[in-house]
């Protein structure tokens, strides 16, 4: 039963599916969209403010002495993934709609997850301190790097022009609350640390709000009528292929640079994952005025696939004998 449970969706994934269904059956219209937009922006700003208050300055600068591992993880996250998305265009694009392919490229430009990357590294007995440093830094770097990558990769590979004004907008809506949280950490940092449940609630709640708003707009514009079932099945295949190649690439990089097994485990779980928590709010800003629902759909599918696959891999690494180090 425990093995089967690894392949079952978690509660948050079920909430995501429920949100998509509700948005498909009862989408927001007119002033409702405007109201949800404002509420969503405030929730996302609060989310990044709390992350800024929670993340210590030591965590941001820690681990610099292990720069080879961190540089490799960042290369896998911000270089290997976009290269895969572009080079696989002849294979991926025929399987999906143009908007879904834009979503795949956007997925490839995102930073790594924080919580799940660290959790899987810990479960697999990898280098947890390095995972904490890399995952946290990746999330922070993504605020700067992702909009630039999207403006370059998506505009060139998918012929979908992206305004670089989005970079400024991202900084105002995401980075500014993060910086304010860092400044307020002196007074509220301990309070935020003691209330991890609050951060999780804001984290998941803001994502659900963005997903409902985005899918409401997309449904109103005919998302499901313009997305045939073969394209959805093709999207699942695309996400699986990209994840498989990313996992393989992370393994090969770890062996190429001669990292220890715990470091290779950290590279595997931090270099192959993409952040839903960061990606959904970013998509709303970067692709404002476009079919955001279709663009975040690949990320939502990839998120669930990576959780299931990485859970199996982490359990396999956890079963190795202690002498395997």
UniProtKB/TrEMBL annotation:
The identity of this protein, by name, is: Bile acid:sodium symporter
What Pfam families does the entry give? Answer: SBF_like
The organism of origin for this protein: Bordetella genomosp. 13
- Which Gene3D superfamilies does the record cross-reference, listed alphabetically? 1.20.1530.20
| GO CC terms in record | plasma membrane
Q: Which domain of life is it from?
A: Bacteria
Q: Does Ion transport appear among the keywords?
A: no
Keyword annotations of the record: Membrane, Transmembrane, Transmembrane helix
Where exactly are the transmembrane stretches of this chain?
A: 12-29, 35-55, 67-88, 100-121, 128-150, 231-254, 275-295
